């Protein structure tokens, strides 16, 4: 791909992506639409649903944000009873975050809404188009690792 066509591609994606992302988020759960939970909070709940707990430092690394930002996000999750914060007896500096039943229920609801949105949006595309799109997403995902 020439630099000119790659620049054109980047410009077109830059125009489309914010609208696509906004529409995906708009169609998500009532919790997000009402502002009761943010996307970074959902990301934390999503990763915690697969683990017993995570250290705050691991969460900061996962989100690619500072410990202070992670602490702010976690504080809101604790306040809303989506997670619990526990320390370790040997080292009080180590703080672990674990998902609660309410947090698990919320992230599962969000994931069901996300799946419903994907079905609504991609249902009008052919099976072939969806397969090609998924193939491209997998290539992008691989490159981002």
Write a compact overview of the structure shown.
The chain has 145 residues and is mainly alpha-helical. The protein contains 7 helices and 3 strands. Strands 1-3-2 form a 3-stranded antiparallel beta sheet.
Your description of this structure?
The chain is mainly alpha-helical and 145 residues long. The protein contains seven helices and three strands. The chain is 68% helix and 8% strand. A three-stranded antiparallel beta sheet has the order 1-3-2. Helix 4 crosses helix 5.
Give the topology, please.
Blueprint: H1 3-26, H2 30-33, H3 39-48, E1 54-55, H4 56-63, H5 67-79, E2 83-87, E3 95-99, H6 101-122, H7 127-144
Antiparallel strand pairs: 1-3, 2-3
Key terms for this structure?
145 residues, mainly alpha, 7 helices
Mean pLDDT: 88
Radius of gyration: 19 Å
- Name the helicity range: 55-70%
The low-pLDDT segments are none
Number of strands: 3
Q: What kind of sheet is the major sheet? A: 3 strands, antiparallel
Q: Record the strand order, biggest sheet.
A: 1-3-2
What is the percentage of strand-forming residues?
A: 5-15%
Q: Look at the helices and sheets and give the structural class.
A: mainly alpha
List the total number of helices. 7
- Overall 3D form: globular
Q: What is the N-to-C succession of helices and strands?
A: HHHEHHEEHH
Q: What is the terminal-to-terminal distance?
A: 23 Å
């Amino acid at each position: 791909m020439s630099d000119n066509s790659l620049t054109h591609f980047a410009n077109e994606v830059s125009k489309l992506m914010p609208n696509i992302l906004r529409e995906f988020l708009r169609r998500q759960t009532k919790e997000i639409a009402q502002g009761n939970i943010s996307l970074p909070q959902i990301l934390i709940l999503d990763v915690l649903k697969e683990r017993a707990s995570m250290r705050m430092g691991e969460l900061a690394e996962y989100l690619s944000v500072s410990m202070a930002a992670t602490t702010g996000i976690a504080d809101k999750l604790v306040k809303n009873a989506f997670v619990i914060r526990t320390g370790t007896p040997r080292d009080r500096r180590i703080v672990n975050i674990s998902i609660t039943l309410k947090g698990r229920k919320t992230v599962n609801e969000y994931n069901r809404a996300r799946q419903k949105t994907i079905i609504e949006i991609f249902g009008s595309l052919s099976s072939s188009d969806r397969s090609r799109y998924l193939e491209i997403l997998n290539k992008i995902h691989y490159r981002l690792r």
